[in-house]
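Section handout 9: paired folding examples.
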Amino acid sequence: MMEIIKSCFKSYSELSQQWKTFRDKGTKLTNSLVNKHLTLSYIDLNDYSDSMKNNIDLQFKFKQQLFKEIEIEYEKLCSVQFELKSIYDKLYQNLTKAKPTFEKLLLSQSAATTTTNLSYDQNLLLKQYQNYEEIVRMYKLSLDNKQTIIENLMQFDDRDQLVVLVSTWNNDTHINYQKIDLIQEIFINSIS
């Protein structure tokens, strides 16, 4: 059982770094998308040359080019979301592999009487499994939140709302990294 938990946490450490890399890439893309979206929404022709102000074809081509750039970046952001989902799927897969082993312990714990309690080591392993389960839940909530951001990003024209979306994407508000660090520290100390 200890090997299962070790494997989960080792895998988590690697996947967590990948998550942060793709999250940061997504932050850059959302920021760029927001800027281009706002530019397209609030084009001020006074900022452009006289030839553009007076030429509807040039204005159309400019908007068309900007729209293409937005479309390309939106596709890249969806690709980043796919990578984040892949990372979450690996975390969940580790949890699923460990579940049958730890379900037996959970059943033993719930059926335990005062004379047949789980050993200290079994309780510790069970707690670590439950902690890992909580970590996976945090990533699922963050993944769902990022999907909501992708779905709503182009619907707002308000700068403040868009800044909140970018900030929310970047900050992983559903993932409590301090708690995860504490869980990992407890795990490392328990196997020492």
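Moving on to protein 2 of 2.
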Amino acid sequence: MSKDIIVLAPNGRRQKVHCTPDTSILQVLEDVCLKQGFQPSDYDLKHHNHILDLTTTIRFSNLPNKAMLEMVEADKKRQESNVTIGLQLEDGERRTADFAPNTALYDLIISLAPGELHSLEQPTILYMRQEVVGEPALKEKTLRQLGLIKGRAILRLLNKQAEARQANVSAFYRCPVPDPKVSEGRIKNIEDNPESGPSNINKQCKDPHPARQPDIITKYKENTIQQRKNAESLAIEPVESSSEPMTPAKEELMEVDAQKSNTTFTSQSREHLERRLKIEEEVTFLGAQKAIAFMQPDYMEEEIDDLPDDFYELSIEEVRKLYHDLQQNRITLENTPLLTSSKQKEFEEQASLQKLNLYKNVVVRVQFPDHIILQGIFTPTNTIEDVTNFIKEHLRNPNKQFHIFVTPLKETLQPKMTLLDAKFVPCVHMHFKWIEEDKIKQPYLKDEIYQKKTASDAATILASKYRAPSRRKVEDNHQNSHKTPTASTSKSSKLPKWFKN
């Protein structure tokens, strides 16, 4: 999202600069000095008595739109110095050298990685969140335009494919796309038998999913045909348009498919419940604490497409909703009474007691570097030392020193701390690491543990069973909520009639 920055020059004139999130503060200063006739090395930019860092970009400068900046004389005239650049290649190798700020990125790549440059179809330099794609852009872009006038920086050299993918962004799981051949076969089956009765429906409809409307199927077919390169070789019969009335056979077909889908869903829920009740017969326990071991599942992940800047622009309704939420948060904070440290500590203890009464078990998972996970069931009053002793019982070399930690922020755990105090209730995912790594990689756990691994889905069901809240506690709270009005009613009934009036 672009912004307009207003800069007050020393001569009293205000200069408006249109900039993007990737524009550096140095570029803003140079543009103003070029138009007003000043020397950029003699001035700094100040915002609310704060001197801005010229190497940062508008994205990370925390400047609002229409921000007012002031040009002030620098305490010391800036002198250009070489910048130490580390160029990271696609294989992880880094090559370092010193360059002047006026050096173009293309010349930088020629100096550090000439062979890799010619092997890339679309060479791209990635710095922070700025991307410079293609040789023409690399020849025009300099280190100064990236905001690099001193110090050190790391640039990534990669090959930008035709379908742009966003780097270093978490992936999400996509639902599998249904096979278009199945849908085409169903459509053709409906057209060939427009007057088929209910007796033929059971033979023809084996798809448990409910039938779609003809117009939706038409759009899906058209999109599928356009995406394929060999669309001319496909012989697909046209589907009836949605403007035509549906025949009774099609309506009955949709009803039967819907009933089958509901029946399938009910049967799947029943099977899942039965498996949950008998899950302990399916898993292989390794010892105390209901210990099991399983491998981390490998899922096919797809990166999120690179979204344009227009995607992040808010509409009027979205801005109104955000403003309404901010107002509600402000009202809540204003109406909240001030708490002393003792009162706040008392509330925290009450919350801990409620959680202790609600959850009877804690599911602890310890992930090893070889992607095997050791799972155990503990109580909230168990300590980190108990978890450490539990891990030692399953290690190949229990006498070797190790430590366990949680992420993010990689916090090392204190041995005497309980799982409740560490806020690990009802579940926690830890990581294992040797204090001194061996030169020869060996399995972390005992050999029989690797032979008695449990399926990952069974381990998930077992964990969800033990980390569920206590049902008795929930029922007690529900009964107490119903008993309270009854008691108040009985007390009020003892009052005399003359007092009620």
